[in-house]
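Many introductory courses stop at the sequence. We go one step further.
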Amino acid sequence: MNVQDWQVFSTFASRYKRVFISKIWKMKHIVVFLFAAISFMACKSSDKKGAGSEITKDSNDAENITSNIPPDTANFTTIQWLDSTYLDLGKQKEGKEIEISFRFKNTGSKNLVIETVNAQCGCTVPEKPEKPFTPGEEGVIKAKYNGSGHGETRKQVYVKANVKPDGNDTLTFRAELIK
């Protein structure tokens, strides 16, 4: 091998080495990315708390365990909304906090347990009653609306409880926001 052949070989080897190292570097990145993705997916699947159940967060960020198991209908009761499930608040000042109350009565023969109270959006913050209501006892679902927006607005508050037929009630309020 003469000097000229050696120089050609050296140049070729140098270029090949750079390409080879570049490809190895890219492969390392792909392997690391795939490993991270698989690890993330494995963590997500192991976060489940048993077959048929999952953990969700309600609007107050408290843990709320829901399940695909049908509810115990033997403990269902009935509820009567004393005022209405629809409140017309009329004209209200735009940007002013508005307090809303929906009164109810347990008209069944079992304790009424309010499981969750959620709002349609972040502009309404409902309060969930913590104690169970005995048969004949009255209670209140309260919510605060921040008065955001302008013109006519309608908002919903969703109540889940151990009531017939499906345990879900939607409470609606309307207001005309003026400047």
